[in-house]
């Protein structure tokens, strides 16, 4: 309704009294239908005479407990508080029933509750430890702090102390209850006795522990029954705190999505416009400019964020290119390391085979030498024997038979000598063959050492000792065929370096270091690639979101312009029909009742949709929790598998080391 026409009903000299028969009526809507509800006016309020009136929700200033015009946040809070005690809401017939039984048609502003329908109202048992002295002291202190903080004494001009909430008088209780309830429903006026008012109000706002309140005991709340009434006052305090927090936007926004932020901007605009609407102001351009400015600021923040993300993306792109270049070098080093590893294994096998051959030929040569020494001794003995025999023959005159016998023995000894000579020649031939084979093996060893040194010189980096100096891994032969090197250990021949004890551990360590560096660089490259992909996806999402927001803002502006034009047209039509509709008040009341029924049906359907949305959100939350749990299990299994592989590899390395030490 046009605020000017509404003012004409209040201020115009031709204003006709059209108030309902009951004077004490709250102008506040019920919490479940707070924006467009079937209101009953008090004697001092404006009365709309069209089917969709603008109802002033501002209370009269005659009471000292007024909070002023209720905010849109309070009305919105009324639709979401106390979801566990939802009822189907009151229709017009229920409001009529309440009017007939209580002598008034008051629709309370108390949040989160609807008027119970007759005796079907169900209450729960009070599980609070109200008889506990500590609990009483706690809720008494919280109630006292709330009253002091919100200037109870100044507004009521009634003294308040700690003792007031421990042993109150009936007046203390009545004033505290009225003050707390008027913070919920500033337009309500207390006209009946306190026991009727308290019980009726508690029943209307669905006090969850109404069974503990005895209507006959309200007129004397002190004594043993005081804990129950103190708990009721504390419940009203908590209810007021919740509404205050909601009205002051005391709720977190850290988990808001972009849509939620935009909705909040638009809701603030609607809230401010609605307050101005209730204050009979028709100029909303200031709030519209604020909304547009907030949209522009939000878009600017998104653009700045996108610029930062673009800069980060460029940096990551450059870093990725550098890592790709490093990856090529790593692949080259890895291939060289694999080649060195193969050469090292071959070199190790060759050295081991040479060691085995050396040990074998040392035994063979020692046996040959022993046989030669034995043959020389035997030859000397034969020669000495022959000389002695010749001497004896000369000294003694021997007979021919003796000479024949001596000749036969000589022939026998000659044959033995021939056999020894043949054996010696065979041994000499075998020794020469072995020497030739050893010479060939020595040449092969020199070629292998030369290849090994070439590979070592081509290494881009070499292992370093504790002082930071590079360790020389090259080897060379030190006159292996010299007489002084015969029978010497390998480290004497290879310039004092022992391949198994010195060079092999260094090469293994160098190989492990290269493998670790390769693995670390690969992991970092994968992480950087993941971050780059994620940031690219975020950039695309933000671009799509900006496009969607711009389209939504355009539609919102068009809708707002259309709404303004519609409101102006409706205002003009309403001004033309005010006089006619003044004479049709009875018909208007019937149309108003029908409108309330439609709005009540709409509220019920909205409540059902809200329940479905909550169920969907809960289902999605459970699904996401299950997904997170599965991811955690996969990561844990992966970690355990990697740890087992590392333990096996460590055991393999230790076994290889033990075998090497054992072979040495």
From TrEMBL:
UniProt-listed GO biological process terms: attachment of mitotic spindle microtubules to kinetochore; cell division
UniProt GO cellular component terms: Ndc80 complex; nucleus
Subcellular location per the Swiss-Prot or TrEMBL entry: Chromosome, Centromere, Kinetochore; Nucleus
Region of interest (Disordered), ranges: 1-129
Coiled-coil regions listed in the entry: 299-423, 518-552
Alphabetical keyword list: Cell cycle, Cell division, Centromere, Chromosome, Coiled coil, Kinetochore, Mitosis, Nucleus
One Pfam family matching this protein: Ndc80_HEC
Signal sequence extent: none
Ranges of Polar residues composition bias in the record: 1-37, 44-55, 63-72, 81-99, 114-124
UniProt keyword Ligase present: no
Organism superkingdom: Eukaryota
Kinetochore protein Ndc80 CH domain segment(s): 112-244
Gene3D superfamilies registered for this protein in UniProt: 6.10.250.1950, Ncd80 complex, Ncd80 subunit (1.10.418.30)
Subunit and interaction comment: Component of the NDC80 complex.
Family under the similarity heading: Belongs to the NDC80/HEC1 family.
Record function comment: Acts as a component of the essential kinetochore-associated NDC80 complex, which is required for chromosome segregation and spindle checkpoint activity.
Record-given protein name: Kinetochore protein NDC80
Species of provenance: Geotrichum candidum (Oospora lactis)
């Amino acid at each position: 309704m046009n605020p000017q026409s509404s003012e004409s009903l209040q201020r115009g000299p031709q204003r006709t009294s059209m108030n309902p028969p009951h004077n004490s009526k709250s102008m506040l809507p019920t919490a479940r239908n707070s924006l467009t509800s079937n209101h009953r006016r008090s004697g001092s309020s404006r009365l709309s005479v069209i089917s969709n009136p603008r109802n002033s929700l501002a209370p009269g200033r005659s009471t000292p407990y007024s909070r002023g015009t209720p905010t849109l946040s309070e009305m919105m809070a009324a639709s979401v508080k106390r979801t566990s005690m939802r009822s189907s809401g009151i229709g017009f017939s229920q409001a009529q029933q309440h009017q007939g039984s209580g002598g008034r048609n008051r629709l309370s502003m108390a949040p989160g509750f609807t008027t119970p329908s007759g005796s079907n109202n169900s209450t729960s048992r009070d599980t609070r430890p109200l008889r506990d002295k500590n609990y009483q002291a706690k809720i008494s202190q919280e109630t006292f702090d709330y009253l002091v903080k919100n200037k109870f004494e100044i507004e009521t001009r009634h003294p308040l102390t700690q003792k007031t909430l421990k042993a109150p008088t009936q007046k203390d209780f009545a004033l505290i209850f009225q003050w707390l309830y008027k913070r919920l429903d500033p337009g309500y006026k207390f006209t009946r006795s306190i026991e009727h008012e308290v019980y009726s109000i508690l029943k209307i706002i669905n006090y969850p522990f109404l069974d503990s309140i005895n209507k006959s005991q309200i007129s004397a709340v002190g004594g043993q029954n005081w804990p129950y009434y103190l708990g009721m006052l504390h419940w009203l305090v908590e209810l007021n705190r919740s509404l205050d927090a909601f009205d002051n936007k005391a709720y977190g926004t850290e988990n808001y999505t972009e849509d939620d932020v935009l909705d909040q901007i638009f809701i603030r605009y609607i809230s401010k416009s609605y307050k101005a609407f209730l204050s009979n102001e028709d100029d909303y351009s200031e709030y519209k400019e604020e909304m547009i400015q907030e949209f522009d600021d939000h878009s600017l923040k998104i653009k700045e964020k996108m610029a930062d993300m673009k800069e980060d993306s460029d940096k990551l792109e450059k870093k990725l290119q550098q890592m790709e270049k490093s990856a090529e070098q790593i692949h080259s080093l890895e291939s060289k390391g694999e080649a060195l590893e193969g050469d090292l294994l071959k070199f190790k096998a060759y050295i081991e085979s040479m060691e085995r051959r050396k040990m074998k030929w040392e035994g063979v040569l020692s046996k040959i030498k022993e046989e030669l020494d034995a043959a020389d001794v035997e030859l000397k003995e034969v020669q000495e024997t022959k000389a002695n025999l010749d001497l004896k023959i000369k000294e003694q005159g021997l007979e021919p038979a003796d000479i024949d016998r001596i000749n036969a023995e000589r022939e026998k000894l000659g044959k033995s000598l021939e056999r020894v000579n043949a054996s010696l020649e065979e041994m000499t031939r075998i020794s020469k063959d072995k020497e030739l084979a050893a010479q060939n093996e020595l040449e092969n060893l020199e070629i292998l050492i030369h290849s090994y040194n070439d590979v070592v010189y081509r290494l881009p980096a070499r292992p370093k000792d504790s002082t930071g100096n590079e360790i020389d891994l090259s080897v060379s032969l030190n006159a292996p065929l010299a007489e002084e090197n015969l029978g010497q250990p390998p480290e004497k021949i290879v310039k004092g370096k022992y391949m198994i004890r010195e060079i092999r551990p260094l090469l293994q360590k160098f190989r492990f270091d290269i493998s670790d560096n390769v693995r670390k660089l690969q992991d970092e490259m994968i992480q950087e690639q993941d971050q780059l992909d994620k940031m690219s996806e975020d950039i695309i999402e933000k671009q799509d979101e900006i496009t969607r927001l711009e389209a939504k803002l355009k539609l919102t502006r068009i809708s707002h312009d259309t709404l303004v034009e519609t409101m102006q047209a409706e205002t003009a039509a309403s001004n033309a029909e005010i006089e006619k509709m003044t004479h049709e008040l009875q018909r208007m009341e019937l149309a108003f009742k029908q409108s309330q029924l439609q709005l009540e049906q709409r509220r019920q359907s909205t409540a059902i949709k809200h329940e479905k949305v909550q169920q969907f959100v809960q289902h999605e939350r459970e699904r996401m929790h299950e997904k997170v749990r599965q991811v955690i299990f996969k990561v844990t299994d992966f970690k355990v598998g990697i740890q087992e592989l590392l333990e096996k590899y460590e055991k393999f390395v230790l076994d290889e080391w033990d075998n090497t030490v054992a072979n040495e």
